[in-house]
Amino acid sequence: MKIVVCVKQVPGTTEVSIDPETKRLIREGVSIEMNPFDTYALEQGILLKEKHGGELVVLSMGPKRAELTLREAIACGADRGVLLNGRPLGGSDTYATSYILSQGIKKIKDVNLVICGKQAVDGDTAQVGPGIAAHLGWPQVTYVSKFIESGESELKLERMHESGSDVSVVELPAVLTVLKDVNIPRIPTLKGRLNSRKVDITIWDETDLETDSEKIGLGGSPTRVVSTRKPDARDKHTIVLKGSASDSARELMKILKTRLEL
Amino acid sequence: MSGNYNMFHVEVLPPRQDVEDLEVRLERFATRYKRVLDAGYCACITDNAMGNMSFQGTEIIEEYDLPVDAVNVMIHLNTFHSKNVLDNILKSCIDRGIKYLLVISGDGNVRFPKLKPADLGIQGVSSVTAVELLQYINREYTGSFHNGVAFNPYEPEEEEHEKMMKKIDAGAEFVITQPIIDSNPIVDKLISEIDLPVMVEAWMSKKLHLLSDCVGYDIPEDTEYDPIESLKNLQTNYPSGGVYLAMMNYKRQFNLLSEIGRA
Amino acid sequence: MKLSELDRADNYNDVWVLGEIAEGKVHRVTLELLGKAKDLAEKRISAGSKVVCLLLGHQLDGLEKELFSHHADKVIIVDDEALKFFNDSIHASVVTRLVNKYKPEIMISGATSKGRSLMPLVAVKLETGLTADCTGLEIDEDSGLLLQTRPAYGGNIIATIKCEDYRPQMSTVRQGVFKVQPEDVSGTGELISEFVLDEEKQTSLTVLSEEGLDGESRINLHDANVIVTGGRGVKNADGFKVIHDLADAVGGAVGASRATIDSGWISYSHQVGQTGLTVQPEVYIACGVSGQIQHLVGMQSSDFIIAINKDPDAPIMHLADVAIVGDLFEVIPEITKLLSN
Fold first, then answer.
1. For residues A163 and C213, what is the distance between their CA atoms, to the nearest angstrom?
2. B17 contact A CB<8A
3. B111, B112, B116, B128: which to substitute to probe chain A, counting the most A Cβ within 10 Å?
4. Do the two domains C9-201 and C215-340 of this chain adopt the same fold?
5. Around B24, how many Cα atoms within 13 Å sit in the side-chain half-sphere?
6. CB atoms within 10 A of CB C123
7. Which of B109-118, B160-169, C39-48 bottoms out in mean pLDDT, i.e. has the lowest?
8. Nearest to B202 by CA among B263, B257, B164, B163
9. Are A226 and C153 in contact (CB < 8 Å)?
10. I need a surface site. Which of A79, B4, B30, C306 has the fewest CB within 10 A?
11. CB under 8 A, 24+ apart: contacts of C282-286
12. What CATH number should be reported for the domain whose range is C215-340?
C-alpha cells in the first residue's frame, strides 16, 4: 500500500490576527500544533501500514514551519514527509488548496489511498478532503468511524452521519476523511523523535508541482474573503443576579414565569 | 527505604517534545537526574506536566541507560494515556526497578488520549481519576509499587477530604501536597487525621505569582518571596515528613540544599 | 464554472436548495433553507429568480408537497433505487450534471454530514467556490452577489465571503441557523422528474446498508427546548451530576463545552460549539461555562440564555439574558428544587 496522509499545521491558540490586505491568517507568534483531526488520519495510516506493509507519506501545504508538524508525523511512524511551499501557493481557498495537494499526490506517484482528518480547526470547512477526491477523480468516503475490513485493493468502512451510520465498500484508490471515533492517536516516542530529526523533508514549490497558475493562490480561489469583523455583541439588557444561591434561584423563577406569561 | 520519605524529593522535568535543541535538553535532564541521585535525594519525574507534550521518564532512563536506585526515583503517572502506553510505562518501571509512583489525574490536552473506565475494567464511574488508576495498578501490579497521591489544600475542604479518603481506600501509601508557603493549617489538619507519610511541596521559584493558577487566587507579580527561607521554614514546621521541591533552579539553589539538608 | 465572455453571469439563474432526506421524510434543514432561498430569490427578482429544490433519493412520491408548501417554486426529483443510500459518487455525478444543465446562480444545502460531503465534491467538479457553515446569507444590493457570512479562525472573526467570478455560488448552512418559515399549504409549483444515467451508476463505491441511531446514543440536542450545559466550572465528571439533575427536572438535554470533552468528563456527543453541535433551544442554561467564542458560535441563537458563573466578567455573562454570579454547585440545586415543586 502507498498511503498519503494530509496534515495541516494550525495555530495552537485562538488568538490569531488577520492581514487587513489579504484577509488571511497571520501565523506569526502563536503556538502551533498538528490539526487535531489529522492526528487520527495519521494514526490510521500507521495502522494500515503496520497491517499491510508499504509506505506512508505525510503531505502538508504551508509555511516552512509546517516542517515541524511533518517531523512529528514521522516521529509517530510515517516514512517520509513532503511540504508544498511557495509564495504563489499562499492565500488559496479550499478549491485551490485541494488542487495543489492533489498535484502533490500525483507527483508522489503510485498512491492508492489518501487519508485526511474530518476538518481543520482553523478553517473548519471540511472541504479539502472531498476537493482532493474530486481533483484526483477518485471515490471518497467521508466521516469514517470504523475500518471494518481492509485489504490491498478495497476497504469496508463504517461511516457516521447525525442520523445514523452506513457501511460501504470502496475500491482503491480512494480518499477518506476520518472521525475521532476511528482510533486513538499515539504520542511520538523518544526514539521516534530522535529518528525524525535525521530525516529529510522534501519541499516542492509551484514549479515542481507543475500547477496551473490560474488555479492557485488568491487569484486561483473562486471564493474570497471581502471583509471581517468582530462578532456582534447581543443588543440586549442583561439581568445580573448577585445574591445568595437561593435568592438568585427565586429571582430566576420569577423572571421565567413572567416570560412565559408574555 | 520503604516508609522513610524524609528526604528531599527534587522534581526533574523531561524536555518538551517540540524543543529545537532536543539532544542538549536530554543531556541536561540526564545530568540533573544523576546529580539528584548522587546527592542522596529522590528524583521525581513529571508526566506531561501542565498538559505539555513531553517525554516519559521511563523512555529517557531507557534511552540513556540512567541508573535507578529503587529508593531514589519516583515517576508521576497520570490518566492521560492509552491503556497500551500505561502498561508499557508500568512494565518499564518494573524492569528498571522503579518502585515509587505519584498517581494523579493530571493535565489533559486535546492531543492526549484519556483512559476510560472500561480500559481499566472498572464500572460505575463515568471517567478515570487518580482513584481508578490507583485501583488498577494495585489490582494488576500488586506489590510492585508504592503509590502516592496528591493533596490540594486550596480546593474546597470537604471535597478534597472525600477525595483523599477514596484515594486511601484505593491503596495510597503516601501523600504530596500542592506548594505551600512556610505552613498551612489545612495540611496540618491532614497530617493529624491520616496515618500516611505526608510530604509538603516547596515552591522554589522567586516568582511566587506563577503559583496563582495552583492556588486559585491572584498573587501579585511583585510579591517579595525568598524560596530558600520558605524551605527552611517548611523544614522547621514539618520535621518528620519529606519535602518535594518544585521549580528549582539547579544552578543557584541545588548546592544550598546540602546546607539546609536533612539528617 | 468560471465566468467568461462566452459564459456570463446572466446565464445563471435561480436559487437552488439541494434537499436531503432523513428517515423517508424531508430533512428539517431543507425546509429551513427553502425559507431562506425565498428571501434570496425575492432580492434577485429582477433576474426572475425562482426557488428550486433538488431532491435525490428513492420512493420520494408525495414529498414534493411539503417542498411546495415551504416555498419552492420548482421541484426537481430524481427518484431511483441507485440513490436509495447516500453514495457520494453517484449523488455527485447526478447533481453535477443537473447543475450544468439548469445553471442555478446560487445553490445551498444543509451542512449536515451528507451536505458537507457532497457539496465540496460537487463544487470542485463544477469548478466553483463553496463556503461552508454559513451563519448568514444575503444578497448584496449593488452587485446582486451572494454575501456569505461565517465565523472563522476559531470563531474570533466573522468573515464575509463572495464568489464573484464563478457559478453557481455555493454555501452550506447548519441546521438551526435559519428558522423554518410559515407554511403555505396551498403552495404549488412545477414538478420536474430527472433520472440517473447508467454510467453514473457504475462506481467503485458501494453502500451496503444504512442504520438509524438507536435512542440512547442519540443525544437530542437538536430537538431539545431546554439545554443545560456544563463547562470547566463543573470541575470533573462527577460535577456533571447537578447538570443532569437540572436537565431531568426541566425535561431538557445535557450539553457540554469543549473543555469538558477534552478533559474526558463527558462524551463528545454532548459538545455544543464550533467543532460540536449548533443548537437553537428556547432556553440555554450555561453552567460554569466561560463563553469562549467557539462555544458561543454554537448556541448564540438560543432564545433565552441563562448563565451561572463565579466570574461576573466571563464573556458568557455579557451575552446572557440572565447572569447569575455564584457557585453553580450551590445555585443549580436551588433551581432544581424550585422546579421540582
1. 6
2. yes
3. B111
4. yes
5. 4
6. 32
7. B109-118
8. B257
9. no
10. B4
11. C282/C225, C282/C226, C283/A256, C283/C225, C283/C226, C283/C227, C283/C250, C283/C252, C284/C226, C284/C227, C284/C229, C284/C255, C285/C226, C285/C227, C285/C228, C285/C229, C285/C246, C285/C252, C286/C229, C286/C231, C286/C316, C286/C320
12. 3.40.50.1220
Residues contacting residue B221 through CB under 8 Å, at least 6 positions apart: B207, B209
Give residue-wise pLDDT tens across range C125-137: 999 999 998 989 9
Q: Which of C237, C238, C262 shows the shortest C-beta gap to B110?
A: C262
Side chain identity, residue A206:
E
**Could you identify the residue written with the cell 520535621?**
B239
Cβ contact B76:B244 at 8 Å: no
Distance CA B55, CA C108 (A): 48
- Cβ atoms of C338 and A255 within 8 Å: the answer is no
Q: What is the CA radius of gyration of chain A?
A: 22
Q: Phi and psi (nearest 5°) for B107? A: -100, 130
Burial class of A212 by CB neighbour count within 10 A (0 to 12, 13 to 18, 19+) = exposed
Q: Is the ipTM above a cut-off of 0.85? A: yes
Torsion angle defined by CA atoms of residues B109, B113, B119 and B124, in that order, rounded to the nearest 10 degrees: 30
Give residue A233's pLDDT: 52
Model confidence pLDDT, tens digit, residues B210-247: 887 667 677 888 888 999 999 999 999 998 889 999 99
Per-residue DSSP letter, B234:
H
Cα distance between residue C81 and residue B48, in whole Å = 54
pLDDT category at A23 given cuts 50, 70, 90 is very low
Distances (CA, A) of B99 to B6, B129, C20: 16, 21, 60
Contact C246, C274 (CB under 8 A): no
Cell numbers standing for residue A16: 490569531
- Alpha carbon distance A167, A144 (integer Å): 10
Quote the cell numbers at residue C302: 438560543
Smallest Cα–Cα separation from A95: which of C285, C3, C131? C131
Q: Do A186 and B85 touch (CB under 8 A)?
A: yes
Query: How is domain C9-201 classified at the architecture level of CATH?
Result: 3-Layer(aba) Sandwich (3.40)
Are C325 and C310 spatial neighbours (Cβ–Cβ below 8 Å)? yes
- CB-nearest partner of A164 from C128, C212, C318: C212
Does residue C156 have a pLDDT over 70? no
Residue A131 clears pLDDT 60, i.e. is over it: yes
Where does the pLDDT of residue A98 fall: very low under 50, low under 70, confident under 90, or very high at 90 and above?
very high
Instruction: Quote the CA–CA distance of B185 and A238 in Å, as a whole number.
Output: 41
Q: Does B90 touch chain A (CB under 8 A)?
A: no
- Tens of pLDDT, residue by residue over B190-216, are 999 999 999 999 999 988 888 876 676
Nearest CA among A79, A133, A94, A108 for reference residue A8: A94
Around Cβ B12, how many Cβ atoms within 10 Å? Answer: 24
Strands A140-150 and A174-178: parallel
- What's the pTM? 0.85
The residues spanned by each domain of chain C are 9-201, 215-340
Burial of residue B29 (CB within 10 Å: 0-12, 13-18, 19+) is buried
pLDDT at residue C158, as a whole number: 85
Note the pLDDT of residue A162: 76
Plot region of C291 (φ>0 → left; ψ -120 to 50 → alpha; else → beta): left
Average per-residue pLDDT for chain C: 90
pLDDT bin (cut points 50, 70, 90) of residue A161 is: confident
Contact A186 B53 (CB under 8 A): no
> CB B213: neighbour CB atoms within 10 A?
11
Task: With CB atoms and an 8 Å threshold, state whether B127 touches C262.
Answer: no
Q: How many residues does chain C have?
A: 341
Sign, CA dihedral B40-B42-B45-B49, equals negative
